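In response to the reviewer comment on reproducibility (Comment 2.3), we provide here a single inverse folding case reported in full, input and output, so that an independent group could reproduce the run without further information from us. The structure tokens appear first.
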């Protein structure tokens, strides 16, 4: 009976808090990024809730397990879309829609009404989720130099990946633990982590807020703040500082990091990472094409433009220009350049 009470209490806190946050993001701050985060919270609630419901109401086991499988299948792609949308202008095109194909298979499995097939599917789609968590973690590591510039979003992205990774471990343990007491403890742990993750999300609420024009008006008009940012980048070339982050920029502007982020998002239609990278690449292009700087090596130009590593420079330059810095220099720019 004590196990049932413990489950019920943790279930109420985790599901209630997560649902409230998801609803708040959808109703109060309905942006593309927030919609993705609210969907992640919903599928986590459903997947964690499945484990709790199967213990509290054994007669609902197949239905709860089926819905839980579908939610777990959706979690990986949604997490990928969300992390991408934090740092880039995200659009769900046909290519990205391929990530949702697995959902069709999970639905088909559930409709089969076969416990053996459903159990096998849980092993397969748990590994499927692991692939996404590994892939997203590798992507963050690979793009760390660029993404870390927006240190507010960077810390949040690491936090949400870390939290979901811990919850994922509880999913794996559930597949191999058959002792009811230990299984219950694992389920309680997953619900507790979900609650702590949603609680931490509330503390990061400024990350999800739209630009509050009234609040900005007390210090700077939105246009004035964007002009001051542009002046620091165009005239002072603040972007050549390799350690520049959104927090460091906000200190120079005597304002809050989230206001700088929201101003850049709304006025320049870019994330801070994209905005910063664009100026660094433009600077690098100018140095590469300047006759005065022909003796400068590509490595020197990378550091002069604000890049902290040569590999980060090559990756970003090729991403924007579809050619390497050396190819760009030899071709005299992008004009008439035939790639490949």
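Designed residues, in position order:
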């Amino acid at each position: 009976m004590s196990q049932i009470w413990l489950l019920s209490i943790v279930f109420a806190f985790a599901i209630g808090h997560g649902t409230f946050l998801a609803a708040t993001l959808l109703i109060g701050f309905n942006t593309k990024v927030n919609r993705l985060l609210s969907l992640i919270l919903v599928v986590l609630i459903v997947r964690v809730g499945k484990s709790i419901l199967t213990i509290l109401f054994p007669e609902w086991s197949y239905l709860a397990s089926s819905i839980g499988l579908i939610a777990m299948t959706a979690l990986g792609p949604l997490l990928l879309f969300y992390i991408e949308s934090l740092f880039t202008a995200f659009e769900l095109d046909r290519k990205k829609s391929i990530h949702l194909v697995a959902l069709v298979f999970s639905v088909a499995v559930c409709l089969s009404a076969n416990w053996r097939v459903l159990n096998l599917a849980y092993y397969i789609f748990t590994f499927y989720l692991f692939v996404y968590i590994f892939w997203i973690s590798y992507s963050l590591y690979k793009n760390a130099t660029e993404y870390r510039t927006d240190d507010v979003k960077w810390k949040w992205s690491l936090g949400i990946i870390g939290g979901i990774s811990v919850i994922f471990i509880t999913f794996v343990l559930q597949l191999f633990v058959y002792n009811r007491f230990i299984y219950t403890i694992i389920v309680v742990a997953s619900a507790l982590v979900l609650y702590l993750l949603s609680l931490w999300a509330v503390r990061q609420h400024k990350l999800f807020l739209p630009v509050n024009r009234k609040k900005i008006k007390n210090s700077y008009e939105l246009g004035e703040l964007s002009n001051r940012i542009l002046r620091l980048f165009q005239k002072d070339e603040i972007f050549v500082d390799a350690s520049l982050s959104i927090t460091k920029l906000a200190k120079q502007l005597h304002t809050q990091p989230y206001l700088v982020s929201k101003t850049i998002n709304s006025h320049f239609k870019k994330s801070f990472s994209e905005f910063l990278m664009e100026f660094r690449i433009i600077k690098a292009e100018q140095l590469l094409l300047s006759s005065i700087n022909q003796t400068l090596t590509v490595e020197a130009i990378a550091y002069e433009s604000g890049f902290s590593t040569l590999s980060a420079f090559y990756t970003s330059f090729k991403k924007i220009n579809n050619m390497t810095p050396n190819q760009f220099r030899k071709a005299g720019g992008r004009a008439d350049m035939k790639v490949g």
